[in-house]
């Protein structure tokens, strides 16, 4: 029984369920005979022979299975994987699509051209300009831009700006007057209340609205001012007016700019945009002292902002020929500035004070008077050859 037990322990792990599959019984003498054979070195080859038997038995079972995979390549399912590689060349076509982008650079080129036109537009007399473009030289546009400047107040800057502009218009020219004085005297002189305007030059210089939106037609076209201009210098640059005027420089023959009585940023804007400067000077000693400072300011603007600006002429105003002091003042001007002094003289006249009350120029208020003739003579002098 001890031998039988040993044999049974060896039979179980070696054979297990395989003895039952081969038809061997687990009981009696058969187990004894096997135990006698098992101590021999045959147990090692037994597991090798067993898989061979299994393989032989499995081969007939697998014979029907290969027939099935043989049928799988036979049906038309095989061309279906052949169709699957077809989208691969489609993907290959989609891959070269990103580099092939002719329409996109074409659109970019168009944008670049428009940007170049905005930065450096082709300027021709009578042609429009994009907003913000530089106005260029006089030969490249229609309008001549004239500023009336003197940091001394009460020298007839506004009176000269309005009446000379109207005299230009009487000669058949299209004229725009620009009021850059926060006091709005030029605006009031044309019958417009600066306190009631909806938009003014403040909105043009600070909010960058088109200057055409603040132009009103009276005896001449006038870009109106308001008291808000007093705070415009905080939010504007030296070229704000130049950029604004670029949209209308081909619509007018002359642009006349009235400046405030200072050399602040508003006056610098006017000088930066101008071709010429007319300096009204009251025939008094204190009024003439500011001319040297104005000349220094103009020299700085020529060097840094506007090399084309120059003094068109110095205009003696409010001249009272009955006084010796007035005559001496004119002599001092001519000695120091020579040909820059206009030959025309603007003498004192009560009509200059009465005309703004009626909201008109002196040429309209008293067209046959001496006061109107003073500015007609000045217009002829400027139109011919200036002060020289």
In short:
It contains 18 helices and seven strands.
Produce the secondary structure layout.
Layout: H1 2-14, H2 18-21, H3 28-37, H4 45-62, H5 64-71, H6 79-83, H7 87-94, H8 103-119, E1 144-148, H9 157-170, E2 175-179, H10 185-188, H11 201-206, E3 215-217, E4 221-223, H12 240-245, E5 254-258, H13 265-273, E6 276-282, H14 285-304, E7 310-317, H15 324-337, H16 351-354, H17 362-365, H18 370-384
Parallel strand pairs: 1-5, 1-6, 2-4, 2-5, 6-7
Antiparallel strand pairs: 3-4
Helix pairs in contact: 1-3, 9-18
List descriptors:
single chain, 388 residues, alpha/beta, Rossmann fold, seven-stranded mixed sheet, 9% strand, globular, disordered N terminus
Question: Describe it for me?
Answer:
This protein has 2 domains: 1-60, no CATH class; 138-384, 3-Layer(aba) Sandwich (Rossmann fold), CATH 3.40.50. Helix 1 crosses helix 3 and helix 9 (157-170) packs across helix 18. 34% of the residues are buried. Mean pLDDT is 76; it is low at 1-10, 25-39, 46-75, 77-85, 87-96, 99-103 and 107-133. It has helices spanning 2-14, 18-21, 28-37, 45-62, 64-71, 79-83, 87-94, 103-119, 157-170, 185-188, 201-206, 240-245, 265-273, 285-304, 324-337, 351-354, 362-365, 370-384, and strands at residues 144-148, 175-179, 215-217, 221-223, 254-258, 276-282, 310-317. Strand 3 and strand 4 (221-223) form a beta hairpin. It has 388 residues and is of the alpha/beta class. The radius of gyration is 52 Å and the shape is globular. The protein has a 7-stranded mixed sheet with strand order 3-4-2-5-1-6-7, sandwiched between helices.
